[in-house]
Request: fold
Amino acid sequence: MVLFTENKEKNNRTAHEDDESSTQAGPQQFIVSSPPANHNADIKLEEVEKVVASLDSKVQSIDSKVVSLDSKVEEFLNIQTFMKHDFSIYKHAFYEKMDTMAANVASSQTSLETSLVHKFTEHQLRLPVI
Reply:
């Protein structure tokens, strides 16, 4: 709504000529209303604002979830690196122990073979010749 003030004395001559009964002098106020508002457009605008606010909230929620996922992925990568390093240490220790065991088996086998050869030789010497 717009409010206009008009000085009736300045424009009194033309208004007085048209309307002889107008005798008021001094400022006059006229109220000019704005065009009727489209109520449906206001409702639709409010609905759109609510949808936009909801979408903003969802985007912020998704952003926080992405940040959380990023930190979890980083944590998993750190764990993976640690596990690779740890596995490498265990693998090295395992192969070292396997090599030691293989060397012990080979040594025991050689010792057993030597012992058996001596026993067979002794046994053959004790046997009477027929």
User: Anything to note?
Assistant: The CA atoms of residues 52 and 58 lie 10 Å apart. Residues 38-126 form one domain. The chain has two helices and two strands. The chain has two domains: 1-34, 38-126.
